[in-house]
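Below is how a single chain appears once it has passed through the pipeline. First comes the sequence as given, then the structure the pipeline wrote out for it. We keep one example in the README because the format questions we get most often are answered faster by looking than by reading.
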Amino acid sequence: GVVAGTTTFRPPVEQPDFQPDFAVFTGMFFVMKFLGLVIFGWLLLWGLGQAVDKIRASIQKKPGRVFLEGLALVLLLPLVAVLLLVTGIGIPVGIALIFGYIALWLVTGILVVAVAADWLRDAKFSKKWKISGRFKTLLALLVSSFVVAILPGIVFFVVAIFVWGAGFQLDKKVLGKLRK
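Resulting structure:
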């Protein structure tokens, strides 16, 4: 084709060479996850310390039963939600179960950190440390948050099943007391 008229050529504006690496984003994600786990783990230990103690005690007392109950929760909760969604009448309950399931997974990391920190703080080897209780709690939170932040998915999943099962047992006890 023939171009009529004048043509002007403008060279492209050069963009800066700054391109953040994947490692920068990964590092920032790790730091944010670590700090979030420490802060919310501390709040959970501070606000619900007795519940965290009971969850840890339940895991130590009956690990097999706790694991099976947690596994049942992890597998059956979404299955029940889907079955409810299939029926017309159960749609609102099914939607609520799905959102509750997602919320449980979001909170699980914090619960795992709190239970692990509680165990580290009260473990036999930590009784020998000559430091204050608050500093021992902070140290236990830092260690458990670091470990949870770098845990591979399957390891975290197994630990989360224990925490879910123990939380379910705690829930049954609380509900049993409310009924009386």
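The longest helix spans residues 91-122.

See the next section for the split statistics.
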